Amino acid sequence: MTAKISMPGWTGPSTEGMLPDIRQDRAIQTRAHILRAAAHVFAEKGFKSSSVLDVAHQVGMTKGAIYFHFPTKEILAVAVVEEHYSRWPQLLERILEDDLSPLETAIAMLDGAAEAFANDIVVQAGARLQLESSVIDADLPQPYVGWMHLLTQLLDAALAEGQLRDDVDPAAVARALVGGFFGVQHVSAVLTGRSDLQERWAELRDLIVARIQA
Prior knowledge:
Layout: H1 25-45, H2 52-59, H3 63-69, H4 73-96, H5 102-119, H6 121-131, H7 145-160, H8 170-192, H9 197-212
Helix pairs in contact: 1-2, 1-4, 1-6, 2-3, 4-5, 4-6, 5-7, 5-9, 7-8, 8-9
């Protein structure tokens, strides 16, 4: 695939300047442990019912140690959501190394996202926090638009390479894929705790690909 494909950043608050200096390896590792513990707590209890003390108990630290790295619960929640979104450019970078076609890359991205939603606690926590944004006194990154932008790029390239039917509108298909994927993952989360997510997504994916593929 010769076209340059990138995942745009999500607009949202930066914790730069709000957190202590964490350049030392030990501090970076500690911060990562706290974020993962917070992800477990937020994924299980949601933002409103969680406390910094819950996170401290989860990670085996004092509440003061948590506050040293994340001065408020809101900053901690934002950091978890931003860590969630950092997964997608990393996934894209790995997939692009396989030199797939544009359509294959688009499908691989969504398949990889389904696996992440099913198995990655940070992704699961970020999704729940995003749904609860109305009770979080902080601006979170904007959901969905990065996915629509990326998939539109890939489907534009797929159309140009003759992979899609001539009547396909790449932007419309991108919106449908994003709506379908996130709808499926939400239903799967509610009904089965995402245990059937990859199977349910594959069903919808195959239907859409059969409709758009040349």
